[in-house]
Task: inverse folding
């Protein structure tokens, strides 16, 4: 019996040393402490020993059993620590995993750029609702119900006289209703038109409009502001051209062109070989608009302008399809 106990001790120590995971520890436990394990087996043999050897052998077997239990527990917690250590260890030689970097959408970027230029000229940002009353989208802007120009600013009607605004000029009316001149503000935001979607049309796009009202504001002030804007937006060498046009809410009105940023005025496909690109509409605020908001047209004059943010972004970045802005294709958006 003594021999046997020694043998078990040695083989147990050997096997324990080589165990390096929970599974091998468990099979060792079963082998030695299990119901049919080596210790049990020896215990079963105790009755066959002579009376003087029995107590001694019994005691030794119990000690061995406790020892094996303790050592198994100890090894188990050691293995646990090692695996925890492994988890916590940072291999500083490994290349890092870069987190995906978020970016502003090209429209947001362009809009911010436009805003910043006007803010630096003393304009403040004004915002208004996208769901509007017919009055703010049409009547107050000198577009009466029967007027043919209403077609150009047609929109989506929601219910009765509620609609989605088709231009941010609605915000101009809202500011003037609430504030007395001088007013110097820009109105960025989304607008809606029932246009069929194609490479240059979208049912929703963005505008930035501007309004300046004070005593003695002249057309030359408008030209100066827009000339400065186009130079900052498209480069110092950009030239501007004002062509007579018609808008119901301005008189006189003009379309503003810039010298083509692709061919620098020589003529190319983008500018239809004219050397000029149309970028915005502008004019002096129609006295009828002042009357609608309760300003005295004999006391105040002002100018207003409006541009499509998508159009500016398309020219600036050389994008030929407006739909790309709204398809959310990460390969496209990543480029800005
Ligand atoms: Zn050109």
Result:
């Amino acid at each position: 019996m003594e021999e046997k106990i020694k043998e078990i001790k040695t083989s147990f120590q050997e096997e324990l040393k080589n165990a390096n995971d929970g599974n091998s520890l468990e099979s060792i436990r079963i082998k030695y402490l299990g119901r049919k394990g080596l210790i049990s087996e020896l215990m079963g043999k105790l009755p066959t020993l002579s009376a003087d050897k029995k107590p001694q052998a019994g005691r030794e077997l119990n000690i061995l059993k406790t020892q094996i239990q303790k050592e198994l527990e100890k090894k188990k917690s050691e293995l646990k620590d090692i695996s925890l250590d492994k988890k916590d260890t940072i291999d500083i030689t490994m290349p890092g995993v870069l987190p995906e970097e978020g970016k502003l959408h090209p429209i947001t970027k362009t809009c911010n750029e436009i805003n910043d230029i006007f803010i630096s000229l003393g304009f403040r940002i004004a915002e208004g609702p996208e769901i509007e009353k017919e009055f703010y989208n049409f009547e107050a802007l000198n577009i009466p119900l029967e007027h043919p120009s209403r077609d150009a600013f047609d929109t989506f009607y929601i219910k009765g006289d509620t609609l989605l605004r088709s231009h941010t000029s609605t915000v101009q009316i809202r500011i003037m209703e609430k504030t007395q001149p001088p007013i110097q503000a820009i109105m960025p935001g989304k607008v809606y038109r029932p246009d069929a979607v194609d490479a240059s049309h979208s049912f929703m796009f963005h505008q930035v409009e501007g309004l300046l009202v004070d005593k003695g504001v002249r057309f030359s002030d408008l030209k100066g502001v827009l000339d400065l804007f186009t130079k900052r937006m498209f480069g110092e060498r950009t030239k501007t051209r004002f062509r007579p046009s018609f808008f119901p809410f301005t008189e006189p009105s003009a379309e503003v062109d810039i010298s083509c940023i692709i061919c620098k005025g020589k003529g190319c496909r983008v500018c239809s070989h004219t050397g000029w690109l149309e970028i915005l509409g502008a004019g002096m605020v129609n006295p009828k608009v002042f009357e609608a908001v309760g300003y005295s047209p004999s006391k105040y004059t002002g100018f207003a302008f409006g541009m499509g943010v998508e159009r500016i972004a398309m020219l600036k970045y050389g994008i030929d399809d407006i739909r790309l802005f709204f398809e959310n294709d990460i390969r496209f958006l990543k480029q800005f």
